From TrEMBL:
Annotated ranges, domain Transketolase-like pyrimidine-binding: 24-199
Keywords tagged on the record: Oxidoreductase, Pyruvate, Thiamine pyrophosphate
Cofactor(s) essential for the protein: thiamine diphosphate
Source organism per UniProt: Deinococcus peraridilitoris (strain DSM 19664 / LMG 22246 / CIP 109416 / KR-200)
The keyword Oxidoreductase is assigned to this record: yes
An example Gene Ontology molecular-function term: oxidoreductase activity
Protein name: Pyruvate/2-oxoglutarate dehydrogenase complex, dehydrogenase component beta subunit
Length: 344
């Protein structure tokens, strides 16, 4: 399947691991995480539209039904409300369901089940019940999918107490965060940046490990500017940082990895050091989750800031069919925003 490298495993914050290192794409790491969790815990089941024999529209579940059978990996009708509702019922009864919503854009028919039921069961039952479920969904743009296959809806769910929301940007985190999500006792929205499915490659331990939900990763250390983001924007954030380094600017890059809960301590520590913050994501600008991060920075570090908090995001329009590169906050847009902050 992939090359196996006999190297020492990478040490990353919030993770434990063992075994050989595999070189995987992000989607291969997602598949591996599900395969390992199906083997580890017979309460785990996977279901959604076309996830069985076909292996899903992006082939994330390819081969899993052959290995574990149609009682544990199975197709559903084309009804997102039913998929989410079944996941809630299974979770309350002691199972560990992983439900796939084929595209994040299709999640809205399931909104009531997720927000009104899954998110509130622990609270409304006084802790007697919980909903340990995972809803996986390919998210974001970059594949010329237009406005019904490219949305980034994470802010809707970040606004809902009782839900955890995560989005990995590396294969290592994709596996570790998904395994942590399956083992969580509360519902997790696990959004996968589909433009990184096969573009992001990296070393992933073959052995069991988790990445703690709620812990950011410092992708690059620096002292002049903090670039903070998550998901599909991270490769471009690193490109922007590398370009600025050639001009003598030291940039720290923070990958949130988790949106709810998010790592305030890591963000504040970085911005306290650099004095400048550039927040990046591909969701539309208005009511973007990074606005919450910006508010926290100015509330806690107002007197330490050397420039206003900057933000680069998607535009407040439906996602276009033909202009992915224009809509997405690429390295060029990040560089222009960074120069403005550095010259303030």
């Amino acid at each position: 399947m992939t090359a196996i490298q006999e190297k020492q495993q990478p040490q990353q914050q919030g993770a434990t691991a063992g075994g050989r290192l595999l070189t995987l794409t992000l989607i291969q790491a997602v598949t591996l995480a599900m395969r390992e969790e199906l083997r580890r815990d017979d309460r785990v089941v996977i279901f959604g539209e076309d996830v069985g024999a076909r292996g899903g529209v992006f082939l994330a579940t390819e081969g899993l039904q052959d290995e574990f059978g149609a009682r544990r990996v199975f197709d559903t009708p084309l009804s997102e409300a039913s998929i989410a509702g079944a996941a809630v019922g299974m979770a309350v009864r002691g199972m560990r369901p992983i439900a796939e919503i084929q595209f994040a854009d299709y999640i809205f028919p399931a909104f009531d089940q997720i927000v009104s039921q899954a998110a509130k069961i622990r609270y409304r039952s006084g802790g007697q019940f919980s909903a340990p479920l995972v809803i996986r969904s390919p998210s974001g743009g970059g594949v010329r999918g237009g406005h019904h296959h490219s949305q980034s809806p994470e802010a809707y769910f970040a606004h809902t107490p009782g839900l955890q929301v995560v989005m990995p940007s590396t294969p290592y985190d994709a596996k570790g965060l998904l395994k942590a999500a399956v083992r969580s006792d509360d519902p997790v929205l696990y959004f996968e940046p589909k433009r990184l499915y096969r573009a992001a490659k990296g070393e992933v331990p073959e052995g069991d490990y988790t990445v703690e939900i709620g812990k950011a990763a410092v992708r690059r250390e620096g002292s002049d500017l903090s670039i903070i983001g998550y998901g599909g924007v991270m490769p471009d954030a690193l490109k922007a940082a590398e370009a600025l380094e050639k001009e003598g600017v030291s940039v720290e890059v923070i990958d949130l990895r988790s949106i709810v809960p998010w790592d305030k301590e890591a963000v504040l520590a970085s911005v306290a050091k650099t004095g400048r913050a550039l927040l990046v994501s591909e969701a539309p600008r208005t009511a973007n989750f990074m606005g919450e991060v910006a508010y926290c920075i100015q509330e806690e570090l107002f007197d330490s800031l050397l420039a206003p908090v900057g933000q680069v995001a998607g535009f407040d329009t439906p996602y276009p069919y033909a202009f992915d590169k224009t809509y997405l906050p690429g390295a060029g847009r990040m560089l222009r925003a960074a120069v403005k902050l550095l010259g303030y």
